[in-house]
TrEMBL record:
Domain F-box associated beta-propeller type: 91-382
Taxonomic superkingdom: Eukaryota
Stretch list, region Disordered: 1-25
Domain F-box: 31-67
Name of the protein in question: F-box protein
Coiled coil (residue ranges): none
SUPFAM superfamilies given in the database record: F-box domain (SSF81383)
Length: 408
């Protein structure tokens, strides 16, 4: 379609032109439609949010479903770092920062994160550090309040859940986000040992982040999840004893229970669920005895979902990484890989007041590791003083976060 859109239009000028005035639009810059789309698609999401106010034409284009989808597919992923003030710290804030990922061929020793948004009245307890990244949105639990935000658009949506364990899922077929809450708790099982079934609530989200509907009809055999759910290709996966639970987001049902390796079950909450080369994988640190660090880890990869077949790879690290099991202790976990397939280990708490924030990249092919500093993650005294940070602050690092300009 051969279109031209002129920059800086206003309704008054257009009405004069359409009324028969054949004067040329002097001072107006005519831009071919395709070129305009191409230009806008190259800009950062934050810039596009500002350009919504340039004209109705641009606003309509940027908010169109077609442009949002093409932008998501074309833009490279980013990393996201998030942290909150200490459990007892005031004021309560959730900080979300992001930055450009390095090129696959790069071996950079530092990256830069910029503060995207600061959400007030949110402080997550220890072990609440795993923020999930789902199709351009971040999600976390603050007790029974479920919080979803988009760092690019700065949209924040929160709503009440009937229980503490909620995971965000995405249905790519119908382009819809849904939240899954496990309503059955361990206390229900204690009071009723003969309990055989679990009940879930599925919350469907619509435009404006509003809750379209809630359903509590999804049931399954009883289980107690050990990890935060991770959404991969339209399925939410949770580790339980003794299997993985696979929830089909589109059809809103527990699809299957996947037999889990015994070692994964032994370590349970100390394991990390990641997406590794398009497959579900579990990182199991080798921390024997009372060791406060690990220099070896096992990588369990789910090779065949239907046959429940797993493969295991063992890797030795060139340097030990902290892994304290005590509450509030220093610990490094993995929440995914970068574009090059390197497994990234990041701390679950900020390293200390105004101290540098480091993550570690491990290359499974060359068996080499490198330390990368993330500049801007609360690493200055000025930042701590300005926002009143105190104590031990829970942190999270999500590689390959999709840059999306979609609104719930």
């Amino acid at each position: 379609m051969d279109k031209s859109v002129f920059y800086g239009d206003d309704e008054e000028d257009q009405s004069r032109d359409s009324g028969g005035d054949k004067r040329s639009r002097r001072g107006k810059l005519l831009i071919p439609y395709d070129m305009e789309v191409e230009t806008l698609s190259r800009l950062p999401g934050k810039s596009l949010m500002k350009f919504l106010c340039v004209s109705k034409t641009w606003s309509s284009l940027i908010r169109s479903q077609r442009f949002v989808a093409s932008y998501y597919a074309a833009k490279p992923s980013r990393f996201v770092a998030a942290f909150t003030n200490s459990v007892f710290g005031k004021p309560e804030h959730l900080f979300i920062l992001s930055g450009e990922e390095e090129e696959a061929s790069s071996s950079s020793s530092s990256l830069v994160a910029n503060l995207d948004m600061r959400i007030p009245s949110v402080t997550l307890p220890y072990n609440g550090y795993k923020y999930s990244s789902v199709h351009g949105f971040m999600a976390c639990n603050d007790e029974t309040t479920f919080i979803i935000c988009n760092p690019s658009t700065r949209q924040v949506v929160s709503f009440h859940c009937k229980a503490f364990r909620t995971s965000l899922g995405y249905d790519p077929v119908h382009d819809q986000f849904k939240a899954l809450t496990l309503l059955t708790s361990v206390y229900d099982y204690i009071h009723n040992p003969s309990l055989m079934m679990c009940t879930h609530e599925v919350i469907r989200l619509g435009r404006g982040g509003r809750v379209v509907s809630r359903s509590s009809q999804v049931t399954s055999p009883y289980y107690l999840p050990m990890t935060v759910g991770r959404c991969i290709n339209g399925f939410i996966l949770l580790l339980r004893t003794p299997v993985f639970v696979c929830f089909d987001v589109r059809n809103e049902r527990v699809l299957s229970f996947i037999t889990t390796p015994k070692e994964v079950l032994v370590w349970k909450v100390y394991t990390s669920l990641i997406e590794y080369k398009g497959k579900l994988a579990v990182v199991v640190p080798n921390c024997l005895g009372c060791a406060s660090s690990f220099d070896r880890f096992n990588l369990w990869i789910l090779e065949d979902v239907t046959k429940h077949e797993w493969s295991k790879q063992t890797f030795d690290l060139p340097l030990p990484l902290p892994f304290t099991r005590a509450p509030m202790g220093q610990r490094l976990i993995s929440q995914g890989t970068n574009k090059a397939g390197e497994i990234i280990f990041s701390p679950t708490t900020l390293p200390g007041r105004a101290k540098p924030f480091y993550v570690f990249y491990f290359n499974t092919d060359t068996k080499s590791a490198r330390r990368v500093r993330i500049h801007g993650v609360a690493d200055t005294e000025e930042f701590w003083s300005r926002y009143g940070l105190t104590g031990i602050c829970c942190a999270s690092f999500s590689p390959q976060h999709a840059d999306s300009i979609a609104f719930l």
